[in-house]
Design a protein that fits this description.
Elements (H helix, E strand, L loop, with lengths): L2 H12 L5 H7 L4 H13 L19 E9 L5 H8 L5 E6 L6 E7 L2 H11 L3 E7 L3
Antiparallel strand pairs: 1-3, 1-4, 2-3
Length: 134
């Protein structure tokens, strides 16, 4: 990857809907040359997918929480199976090193729903809850 490829990735990270013509202008290439480079970056797996940044609060999920997760034993499967059923609330679940086993990011429509989630979660693991303030 050269500096032009890095600029292309940076531009696409800011706006995945940019036209190839505009992308080319920003990185000092023709639109056709920029499109060819984007295709090569996709083929090499540098660009994996294009996505949308959604404001979950406006979708009705204002409670934003991070949970450090500790599993009680060596088998994490009961926790992972539970989390797989909670895709309405779970944004990301990272297996991490350090004090805890996982870092779970979630969004909830209310504190009441969060409380119900925590009661269910506690059947599988222990956790430490942090609420995002801003």
């Amino acid at each position: 990857m050269d500096h032009v490829d890095l600029r292309i990735v940076e531009e696409l990270s800011q706006n995945g809907r940019i036209t190839m013509k505009e992308l080319g202008e920003r990185v000092h290439l023709t639109g056709q040359a920029a499109a060819a480079r984007v295709l090569k970056l996709e083929d090499r797996g540098v660009i994996k997918r294009y996505t949308v940044d959604v404001d979950r609060e406006q979708l009705g999920y204002p409670v934003h929480a991070f949970l450090n997760i500790w599993t009680g034993g060596l088998s994490h499967q009961p926790y992972l199976t539970f989390i797989a059923t909670q895709d309405e609330y779970v944004i990301r679940n990272h297996k991490i090193s350090g004090e805890s086993c996982y870092l779970l990011e979630c969004r909830f429509p209310s504190n009441k729903v969060l409380d119900g989630f925590l009661i269910d979660l506690n059947r599988y693991v222990n956790y430490k809850l942090s609420i995002v303030v801003s």
